[in-house]
Every structure is written in C-alpha cells, then in structure tokens.
Design brief:
By secondary structure, the chain is an alpha+beta fold. The protein is built from nine helices and twelve strands. Strand 1, helix 5 and strand 2 form a beta-alpha-beta unit. Helix 1 runs antiparallel to helix 3, helix 1 runs parallel beside helix 4 and helix 3 runs antiparallel to helix 4. The radius of gyration is 22 Å and the shape is globular.
C-alpha cells in the first residue's frame, strides 16, 4: 500500500509540476522546469508500469485508484504534447510568392571543427544562415562559402580566447544570398541584446522582389533571476519589433526558451506564429557538452526544444526540420517558407 501510494503521488506531482510551470508561478526555476514536459510524461509512464506490476503481485484498492490517477495524468500530458502535432491553419500563398530556405545553428564557441556545418550548408544551399555563439573562427569558416552566401552581417567581437576566459568572444551573424541592410537599435537595449536585425530584398527586379525582415535571435539563458528578467525583456522586444514592422518578419534562432514557457504563449507572440506547429516537438538542445568526457550521453536525457522560428501571418510554411549533429549541443533548424512579393 505504501509503495502504490508513493508511486501515485509521484505521478500526480510530476503532472502538476509540468502543468503549473507553464501557467503559474512565473520564476526562473519554474521556467526551467517547464522545459522537460516530454521527460515528465515518460517518467509518469514508467511509474504507471511499476504500479501495474504491483497490481499483478497484489490486488488492492489503493493500486486500482493509483492506476486510474496515473492513466488520467498521462492522458492529460499526451493532450498537452499533441498540440505541436496538430496541423497549423493553412495559408495559401500568392502565385508570385518566393520560396526561401533558412538554416539556423548555435555553433557553440568551443567548436573547432566546422566541416559538418559547412557540408550541411553545401548540401542544403539555404538562402540565409543564422549563427548564434559565433566566434571569429566561425566567420572565417563561413566566409569560405562566399560562392553560396556572398553577403553577411555580424555582431561578433574580434579576437581569440583571453586568459581566464572559458571561450573566445562570441555573437550573432547572418549570411545571405541577397544583400543585407542592418537595422539599428538603441545600444544595449533588450532588442539589441536579443540578436541581429536585418532587412533583405530578394531579387533584383523590384516589381517581383520580396521584402523580408529577419531577426537572428540569441536570448539569455534564464538560470538566474536577473538573467530570467532580461531574457523576458529580450523576448518582448523581439515580438514588439515584429509587430511594429510592415514587412514580413522571421524571428529565428536560439531563444533559450522552451516550447512550454509562459513567454511563448500565443498571446505573447502574436501576431507571429510558430513554424514548428504541425511538425512535432523536435527537441533541438541537449546539454551533452556540460557533462565530463565519457558521460556526455547523459545529455540525451535532457533533450528540449529551445531553438525556434516564428513568422508573420502572411508568410506560408513549407517545412520545418532539424539538421544533423554539427559538433554543438544544438541541432541546426532548417525552415522553408513562401514570402509574398
């Protein structure tokens, strides 16, 4: 009876943690807790199977009640997770709409081998590549693809790792097949700290060109109260910039915000909508590089989706998917969109 009661309480507790972390008690701790909804559901399923094993050994009323509670909790979690597998509202683009492909990757500043990323870009031939945590080495490697992406903008400090520093200076960069125009913002504003904003005209014929605004996002990791507050300010600034623009907008990159964070509710992100909708959860980050060598496989237990792409209502979605491992703790995000001219 004691074992079945503890298992039932554990299932109920994990379900309440997953639910309340999305909607109640906004804090950096609960925001981080909201990132692992898939893990809560898997843990509850394993606990429910343990309850079922107890039932086979000894049939008691407590175990029957625990099984019912567990089944209700798991069903509730499946309904919450299934949201991302339900198709988004289809938008029919005009015949003149231009198809573009974007690839976003947090390359991790410790990375020295860019061959997997360069090969992926050669294979995918995206129109735009967005880099987060880019270093001077990143820019040097990506400039070798000038034949594919001749234009670039970056906010990457020059130089190598300094004594006492763990990583070299890092920042955000955009590489493009089309000319880029940087959009200035007040220095050290939340919008400025959130990433790099650019405008692009695709095509040389102005009558048939598609104008586009791209926000390469890299928000702070909310692991402290002040980081959490600043991250939220950055998210607010990103979506406010999209609302203020008349151009079709893509906000894409490492948001350091999970799908289930209260910062990414439909109310907070409107009018932008998530490209991921209908393509599944597709977790993009695992902390494998945070574990000692030989134990990096443990990072696979903490997969979570924090790399996103949000678009204006007038942009149609062709596809959303993750790329292969490129020697980082993030998988690249690849999207294909149709932009109205």
């Amino acid at each position: 009876m004691t074992a079945s009661l503890l298992l039932s309480l554990a299932i109920l507790g994990l379900t309440l943690l997953g639910w309340t972390s999305q909607w109640f008690w906004p804090s950096w701790v609960m925001d981080l807790a909201s990132s692992f909804q898939v893990q809560y559901a898997i843990a509850n399923l394993l606990l429910w199977l343990l309850l079922l094993r107890l039932l086979l050994q000894r049939r008691t009323q407590t175990i029957y009640i625990g099984l019912l509670i567990g089944l209700a909790c798991i069903s509730f979690q499946i309904v919450l997770l299934s949201r991302w597998y339900r198709p988004a509202i289809a938008i029919t683009p005009p015949a003149s709409a231009q198809t573009i492909k974007l690839l976003s990757s947090n390359v991790h500043p410790s990375n020295k081998d860019y061959e997997p990323l360069l090969s992926l870009i050669e294979q995918e031939k995206p129109d735009f590549v967005l880099l987060q945590e880019a270093t001077a080495l990143s820019l040097e490697k990506l400039h070798s693809l000038n034949h594919l992406l001749p234009y670039s903008l970056d906010k990457v400090p020059p130089g190598d790792r300094q004594p006492g520093e763990k990583y070299p200076p890092k920042g955000t960069a955009i590489f493009s097949r089309f000319p880029l125009t940087a959009q200035s913002s007040k220095a050290e504003s939340p919008e400025d700290r959130a990433g790099l904003l650019a405008q692009i005209q695709t095509g040389s014929n102005s009558a048939q060109a598609a104008w586009l605004q791209i926000f390469a996002v890299h928000a702070l990791v909310p692991i402290r109260p002040n980081f959490y507050r600043q991250r939220n300010e950055q998210m607010t600034a990103v979506f406010s910039a999209a609302r203020a623009s008349e151009l079709p907008t893509v906000a894409m990159g490492d948001f350091n915000t999970s799908l289930w964070s209260s910062q990414l509710t439909d109310q907070n992100t409107a009018p932008l909508r998530p490209v991921r909708q209908g393509f599944g959860i597709q977790p993009s980050w695992r902390p494998n590089l945070s574990f000692p060598r030989g134990l990096q496989w443990l990072g696979n237990l903490f997969w979570t989706p924090i790399d996103h792409s949000y678009i204006s209502p007038d942009i149609a979605i062709d596809h959303f998917r993750l790329g292969p491992d490129v020697n980082s703790d993030h998988l690249p995000v690849i999207v294909e969109l149709k932009i109205p001219t």
